[in-house]
TrEMBL record:
Subunit structure: Tetramer of two alpha and two beta subunits.
SUPFAM superfamilies associated with the record: Class II aaRS and biotin synthetases, tRNA-binding arm
CDD domains registered for this protein in UniProt: PheRS_alpha_core (cd00496)
Residue ranges that the Swiss-Prot or TrEMBL entry lists as coiled coil: none
Compartments, as annotated in UniProt: Cytoplasm
Free-text remark on how the cofactor is bound: Binds 2 magnesium ions per tetramer.
Protein name according to UniProt: Phenylalanine--tRNA ligase alpha subunit
Keyword tags: Aminoacyl-tRNA synthetase, ATP-binding, Cytoplasm, Ligase, Magnesium, Metal-binding, Nucleotide-binding, Protein biosynthesis
GO MF annotation: an example: magnesium ion binding
Record's catalysed reaction(s): tRNA(Phe) + L-phenylalanine + ATP = L-phenylalanyl-tRNA(Phe) + AMP + diphosphate + H(+)
Listed cofactors: Mg(2+)
Gene: pheS
Entry annotated with the keyword Electron transport: no
EC number: 6.1.1.20
Length: 341
């Protein structure tokens, strides 16, 4: 009993004291072992009860020893960590990144078209002349094929291959889909495109488009118009309107450019819409029968529409961004404004 209360009262502050504790209560020459040795001198009828008491004493000594050891180790660790380090302080907040505005808008575009039954398709950024130009009815001498617009790929010998290039639009995915699959098609195709243009507030040599393709029996121009009308309302709000202007693309006939009311000035006129109240967001049209044929689809049986919109333009409109270069400069003061968007 004396030993028990001695152990219960003891406190430790150094490894020397810990060693003294071990010698006295734990080691084979210690006080506890000694008591165990005396157990055989205890009368038979009391031996059991005394044995139990001794076990209690032994267990107590061991658990206190472990406790003290852990205490000393923790003290040594915090000493090693240096003075003034408070491990209970909350951590310095580490700010989360934010989603890039182009990604936000791409996701929103996909969401809107998925609800209309479009799926998402994908194609390569390095493309052959066939899928990017020839299958789309570009004549051999079309200016878009020329060096100032298209980045052609060099062979390792340094020779330029005029049949391998960086795609200039996402329309290459249209031709790939049609050539490799069977109608109906109802897909959108987001992606990165490349044109040899000087970088400015309004143009860049790398930008993003979302292509759309709907080919089935009896698809009409009205379907195109309705689809884009619905898209504009979903993307820019109920007050937005669209306008179709006649245009020309080698792969659509008839073709139209699509303008939406300028979201920034709500149609009143500003720098972004050059005071017209309208901003062009897409090219579109009915898939040219020759293109269907180039891709192995019977134009007598199927018709379709296609469009290609610029994600940068839509993002600028949606968030009131006036310089395209902000998208690629990675300035955190710009990017932070989309936290939680
Ligand atoms: N590919 C065209 C461009 O980049 C846009 C477009 C796509 C036009 C589909 C009509 C149909 O300008």
């Amino acid at each position: 009993k004396e030993l028990i209360s001695e152990i219960e009262k003891s406190t430790l502050s150094s490894s020397d004291e810990l060693e003294a504790f071990r010698m006295r209560y734990i080691s084979r020459k210690g006080a506890v072992t000694e008591l165990f040795e005396q157990l055989k001198t205890v009368p038979q009828e009391e031996r059991r009860a005394v044995g139990q008491e001794l076990n209690t004493l032994k267990n107590l000594a061991q658990s206190r020893f472990q406790e003290f050891t852990a205490q000393l180790e923790a003290a040594a660790a915090s000493e090693a960590a240096g003075p003034g380090l408070d491990l209970t302080l909350p951590v310095v907040p580490n700010p989360y990144g934010s989603i890039h505005p182009l990604t936000l808008v791409r996701r929103r575009i996909i969401e809107i078209f998925e609800r209309m039954g479009f799926n998402v398709a994908d194609g390569p950024e390095i493309e052959t002349d066939w899928y990017n130009f020839s299958a789309l009815n570009f004549p051999d001498n079309h200016p878009a094929r020329e060096m100032q617009d298209t980045f052609f790929i060099e062979k390792s010998t340094g020779a330029v291959q005029d049949d391998v290039l960086l795609r200039t639009h996402t329309s290459n995915v249209q031709t790939r889909l049609m050539e490799h699959g069977k109608p109906p098609f109802r897909s959108i195709m987001p992606g990165r495109v490349f044109r040899n243009e000087a970088i400015s507030a309004r143009a860049h040599c790398v930008f993003h488009q979302v292509e759309g393709l709907y080919v089935d029996k009896n698809v009409s121009f009205k379907d195109l118009k309705d689809t884009l009308y619905h898209f504009a309302k979903e993307m820019f709000g109920k007050d937005s309107r669209i306008r179709l202007r006649p245009s020309y693309f080698p792969f659509t006939e008839p073709s139209a450019e699509i303008d939406v009311t300028c979201f920034i000035c709500k149609g009143k006129g500003c720098n972004v819409c050059k005071h017209t109240g309208w901003v062009e967001i897409a090219g579109s049209g009915m898939v040219d029968p020759q293109v269907l044929q180039n891709c192995g689809i019977d134009p007598e049986e199927y018709t379709g529409f296609a469009f290609g919109m610029g994600i940068e333009r839509i993002t600028m409109l949606r968030y009131g961004i006036k310089d395209l270069r902000l998208f690629t400069e990675n300035d955190v003061r710009f990017l932070r404004q989309f936290e939680g968007a």
